[in-house]
Amino acid sequence: MKHLQTTATREAFEAKVISRMESLNRAWQSTTDEADRANFNDMYNALNEQWLYARTSKEWLFNWKSGGWNSIYAADREQALKKAKAEWKNSNLVIDEDSFRICTPEDHKQLMSLFY
What we know:
Number of domains: 2
Low-confidence stretches: none
Largest sheet: 3 strands, antiparallel
Order of helices and strands: HHEEHEH
Shape: elongated
Strand content: 15-25%
Distance between the termini: 31 Å
Oligomer: single chain
């Protein structure tokens, strides 16, 4: 998801979604046709879900260059990298910056299976 790579791209994506939501709201207000209003509601709700997802923290997985993995919560990749660097700055472990990715349910199940 390119719009979740940096804080700037995430914020630009959020602004674009908000603009689309405002347009849909104006279109909804300008019509009395129930089918159109239902359609606008569906589109608005889908955009609202995208906006909420972009704003909320997600679990980001990353690897150590020496092997192994860890996770951190952040809204975008840039924030996740900053948080991980701050959290592990006094460690001898080196973060593989290219390995950051959003944790999927499949990732979580697979990685947790390593513990039991």
